[in-house]
């Protein structure tokens, strides 16, 4: 990371507006992607990300440095807001493939029929991901889709690192079995 996170937080706590702005610029994209992956709505994701920063910056004077990254702190706030979002709306989360938001708009070197098949496979894998138990699904979303470190996922979920690794292993094994059952792997399609 190009900034010294703890120095930037200390400067922001002392009222340095440039430091506050830099924290937002550095962490906004990942918080927005997290919210978008959970809601499927750019407008709702924008609102959740904004509320995350309003809450985090409002609590910044009380924030104390820990071994967890500031991104973990922000992610925890965002996940709580996403939980509230669904409680208020009384509906199940929409499964969205966050990888689609990281892909270029124009695929280079891929034939149109291959691109359609790849898109269909991604959609099917997302649907199967939704069949996993909640904790396993969350571990896959955080570890695989968002690239969050094991230690940070452990803090977010309130589990040990070993428990996160075990959940990830079980989730991947279950997801592979589901892919096999639905013909998304060579062995399952034979």
TrEMBL record:
<keyword id="KW-0805">Transcription regulation</keyword>
<keyword id="KW-0238">DNA-binding</keyword>
<dbReference type="InterPro" id="IPR014284">
    <property type="entry name" value="RNA_pol_sigma-70_dom"/>
</dbReference>
<feature type="domain" description="RNA polymerase sigma-70 region 2">
    <location>
        <begin position="27"/>
        <end position="91"/>
    </location>
</feature>
<dbReference type="InterPro" id="IPR007627">
    <property type="entry name" value="RNA_pol_sigma70_r2"/>
</dbReference>
<dbReference type="InterPro" id="IPR039425">
    <property type="entry name" value="RNA_pol_sigma-70-like"/>
</dbReference>
<dbReference type="Pfam" id="PF04542">
    <property type="entry name" value="Sigma70_r2"/>
</dbReference>
<comment type="similarity">
    <text>Belongs to the sigma-70 factor family. ECF subfamily.</text>
</comment>
<dbReference type="InterPro" id="IPR013324">
    <property type="entry name" value="RNA_pol_sigma_r3/r4-like"/>
</dbReference>
<dbReference type="InterPro" id="IPR036388">
    <property type="entry name" value="WH-like_DNA-bd_sf"/>
</dbReference>
<feature type="domain" description="RNA polymerase sigma factor 70 region 4 type 2">
    <location>
        <begin position="124"/>
        <end position="175"/>
    </location>
</feature>
<protein>
    <recommendedName>
        <fullName>RNA polymerase sigma factor</fullName>
    </recommendedName>
</protein>
<dbReference type="Pfam" id="PF08281">
    <property type="entry name" value="Sigma70_r4_2"/>
</dbReference>
<keyword id="KW-0731">Sigma factor</keyword>
<dbReference type="InterPro" id="IPR013249">
    <property type="entry name" value="RNA_pol_sigma70_r4_t2"/>
</dbReference>
<dbReference type="InterPro" id="IPR013325">
    <property type="entry name" value="RNA_pol_sigma_r2"/>
</dbReference>
<keyword id="KW-0804">Transcription</keyword>
<dbReference type="InterPro" id="IPR000838">
    <property type="entry name" value="RNA_pol_sigma70_ECF_CS"/>
</dbReference>
């Amino acid at each position: 990371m190009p900034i010294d996170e703890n120095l930037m937080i200390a400067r922001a706590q002392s009222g340095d507006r440039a430091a506050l702005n830099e924290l937002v610029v550095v962490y906004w994209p990942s918080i927005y992607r997290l919210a978008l992956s959970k809601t499927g709505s750019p407008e709702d994701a924008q609102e959740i990300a904004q509320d995350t920063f309003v809450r985090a910056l409002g609590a910044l004077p009380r924030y104390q440095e820990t071994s967890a990254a500031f991104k973990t702190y922000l992610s925890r706030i965002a996940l709580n807001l996403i939980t509230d979002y669904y409680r208020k709306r009384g509906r199940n989360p929409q499964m969205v493939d966050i990888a689609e938001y990281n892909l270029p708009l124009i695929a280079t070197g891929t034939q149109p029929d291959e691109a359609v098949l790849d898109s269909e496979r991604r959609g099917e894998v997302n649907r199967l991901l939704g069949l996993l138990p909640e904790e396993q699904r969350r571990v896959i979303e955080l570890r695989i889709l968002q690239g969050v470190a094991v230690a940070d996922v452990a803090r977010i979920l309130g589990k040990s690192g070993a428990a996160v690794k075990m959940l990830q292993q079980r989730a991947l094994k279950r997801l592979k079995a589901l892919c096999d059952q639905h013909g998304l792997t060579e062995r399952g399609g034979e």
